[in-house]
Design brief:
By secondary structure, the chain is α+β, with helices and mostly antiparallel strands. It contains 13 helices and 19 strands.
């Protein structure tokens, strides 16, 4: 058993810095590199890709990294755990094999975690008495089941630990919980077992702290002006011990900042109820977390408690939710805010005149530069010299959305003066891939979890 185990996260989302994974494996020691690519919106993007090409639906950035770094990963014995598989982990595994052959790496063992995809099983699941009600509204899925495009259960850390136990050097998964990417290696390295609630909770919180990348090392930090060399910000590493304690740090010589405050801010991020952080593996109690400084850019975390997990998996589904279009106009000159509001009113009234009334709840009106991000914060009577009017709408009727896109350009000559910045042509209708969260009995999903480890 190695002690401590060093786990670093090099991606907080699909679209994070493409250089960071390389920096993580070349600028200091590491045992595991985790790469977290998935979010609800990411699954929607991947589904659109897979609908166009059945061989797509995974995070292509991961392949770019492997093309560059695979020989170094093998030479240094760094294992990679990632959810880059998205909606098509088997297709990604095939591409990994192609890269390994191209860069001259042989004997690579790749673990693939499947079973999270339950789309084809939805009719049977519903017939067995699982309504998959929306977690916020309580609506049963049945009313729009035929519109569902993807359905994936958030699996836990056990299959990750299993894949590593079978010798995998790269573990590729689809929809796992973000924290499983860290807990899985700890279960494998330290022999932590299901029902060891405190240890599992410690692994979950370690994963939670590093899952969003640089948010734990000074990115998105409230006192951002205190963060040195943010252009070269180091991503977080946890030095983990068998008793569940760990130290949050980063590679020496990198920018950024690791303090009790940066770690605490990330700890609170997307936390929900502090004593009831629910994952498939354990319910972690964030109120028990002890955080203390442990040197320059080092913070020790310990004392974590957890309790029995729930009998459910969260299921993330996407479905066809109609169409949308969004356009932008820059409104300049005196009384820019008033002119932007008038432009918005003109569009809605012209659509109504054409028999295409848009309900208020289906409209998007934002005045970027005035109140789009923080409504009400601008001083009364203060008018900026320009604002960007972001105008959009949604509808089940694609033709209605297309007509909306025809109403923005005419404002340049038939609206108030000072309108500019219209570029890119008319806004085109785009399909809405909407999100549906639900809970599902674990017994329905567990038998479908399969892990394969093959030599490339």
């Amino acid at each position: 058993m190695k002690e401590p185990v060093l786990i670093g996260n090099g991606q907080g989302f699909w679209g994070d810095s493409p250089d960071t994974p390389w920096e993580m494996v070349t600028r200091g020691p590491l045992d595991y590199l985790t790469l977290d690519y998935l979010a609800e919106v990411t699954m929607s993007i991947m589904m659109k890709q897979k609908l166009r090409d059945p061989n797509k639906g995974y995070a292509t950035d991961f392949l770019d990294f492997l093309e560059r770094a695979l020989p170094i990963l093998m030479d240094r014995g760094i294992k990679v755990v990632t959810n880059a598989g998205g909606l098509n982990p088997l297709a990604l595994r095939t591409r990994i094999g192609e890269i390994a052959e191209r860069v001259g790496v042989f004997g690579l063992k790749v673990g693939v975690i499947e079973g999270d995809d339950i789309l084809d099983r939805l009719p049977g699941i519903a017939d067995a008495g699982h309504p998959l009600k929306h977690m916020d509204t309580g609506r049963p899925l049945e009313e729009l089941r035929r519109k569902v495009l993807s359905a994936n259960a958030y699996l836990g850390a056990e299959p990750v630990a299993k894949a590593l136990g079978m010798g995998a050097q790269i573990v590729v998964a689809g929809r796992l919980t973000d924290t499983s990417l860290t807990l899985g290696p700890l279960m494998h390295e330290f022999g932590w077992k299901p029902r060891q609630w405190d240890l599992l909770a410690a692994g979950i919180i370690a994963g939670h702290i590093i899952e969003c990348g640089a948010q734990a090392t000074g990115g998105n930090f409230t006192r951002w002006w205190e963060v040195p060399n943010m252009w070269d910000i180091g991503y977080p590493i946890v030095e983990c011990y068998p008793d569940g304690s760990f130290v949050v740090t980063k590679h020496p010589g990198t920018g950024g900042l690791v303090t009790v405050d940066t770690v605490a801010e990330q700890l609170l991020y997307e936390m929900g109820t502090p004593d009831d952080y629910i994952t498939p593996d354990v319910v972690a109690d964030f109120t028990t977390v002890q955080i203390e400084p442990a040197g320059d850019d080092r913070v020790r975390v310990h004392g974590i408690k957890g309790r029995k997990n729930t009998p459910y998996y969260k299921v993330s589904m996407t479905y066809h939710g109609g169409y949308k279009a969004v356009g932008h106009l820059t409104i300049s000159g005196p009384r820019a805010i008033h002119k932007a509001k008038l432009c918005s009113e003109i569009v809605w009234r012209r659509l109504a005149r054409a028999g295409l009334t848009v309900p208020v709840e289906d409209r998007l009106v934002e005045l970027v530069g005035a109140d789009a991000c923080m409504p009400g914060i601008a001083e009364a009577g203060c008018s900026p010299p320009e604002v960007v009017l972001r105008l959009g709408m949604r509808s089940a009727d694609r033709r209605k959305v297309a007509r909306f896109g025809m109403e923005l350009a005419p404002l340049i000559t038939s609206g108030p003066p000072g309108i500019t910045g219209f570029a890119g042509g008319r806004p085109k209708p785009q399909e809405i891939v909407a999100y549906w969260p639900a809970l599902l009995d674990k017994r329905v999903v567990d038998p479908q979890v399969r892990v394969t480890v093959e030599e490339v």
